[in-house]
Predict the 3D structure of the following.
Amino acid sequence: MTQSLATSLLVTLLGMALVFGAILLFWLFMSALSWLGSPRGNRNGPAGAGKVGDPDQEERALRRRAALAAVTVALARSERGGSRPFPLPPTALVSTWQAVMRAKQLGDKGLLR
């Protein structure tokens, strides 16, 4: 009994080690790909993470980004066509009375095929 328990624990630990080892390998592979795929000047992380820049230049960049966001929102609203968030649904091809009568006929006779 104790031998089979020890064997099962060993198999469990081996399986867990394989799973976590594969996760670690995938993580290393993905970080290597992201490091190789990043531009040469941006190896230290996100834009401006390791650099202390001119405060005026940073403020201008921030204002430029805010203006770009405002223009993007304005263009999206104008393309949408008015203040409605969604377009109106198309008109029904059949009246409510016709839809009810057809549903009643299908319920009475069932689908014929």
